[in-house]
């Protein structure tokens, strides 16, 4: 059986796979105005690590959503073990199952780039309340990334687009967002070299999963200086 990178993350149960990891997530959230009355969407929640942190730290109402059934299983188990009342959905962020103007804050960690970006940003804008905030940690092509390398990366990660910083900023604005800021900027390789060891798998890897992760790290070390990530913060006004 051939697995995608997203399958591998879900089956292995990798936490904080985005550059900067969970420590970056905690820093970002603690800089936001969040209290018990806040309604927050963790879009692409993975194993539920960020959702659980939000619920425990701020006692706010959290909705967690992921399209991959294995990730949803991991998140459900986490929430049950911690006795957390978090609404969990197995759904795509391209068509969110929520009413307009539902959330004060959306956090999307290394999620949007793996979808139809324009659809997802439009949905984020729709379900945010007025004066709501989107925090998006996303893969971003550096200007030095050539077309052949870009194609190889897109094929492996099943990306529809691989946007440069200027293209991301334009996409946020075209979908209605204002006051778009870049809170953090780095190449993937820089972040990897400065990060701690990755999380251990929740189960042993089979041959297919090992191949996927080996290819992932090959691409990172081959193109990591030309492939970056950004933390984008955008508002709905």
Automatic annotation (TrEMBL):
Keywords carried by this UniProt record: Methyltransferase, Transferase
Reaction catalyzed: phosphoethanolamine + S-adenosyl-L-methionine = N-methylethanolamine phosphate + S-adenosyl-L-homocysteine + H(+)
Keyword match Methyltransferase: yes
Domain of life, per lineage: Bacteria
GO molecular function: phosphoethanolamine N-methyltransferase activity
This protein's pathway: Phospholipid metabolism; Lipid metabolism
Database matches in InterPro entries: Methyltransf_25, SAM-dependent_MTases_sf
Keyword Methyltransferase attached: yes
BP-aspect Gene Ontology terms: methylation
Residue span(s) of domain Methyltransferase: 40-132
Entry-linked PANTHER family: PHOSPHOETHANOLAMINE METHYLTRANSFERASE, PHOSPHOETHANOLAMINE METHYLTRANSFERASE ISOFORM X1
Protein name: Type 11 methyltransferase
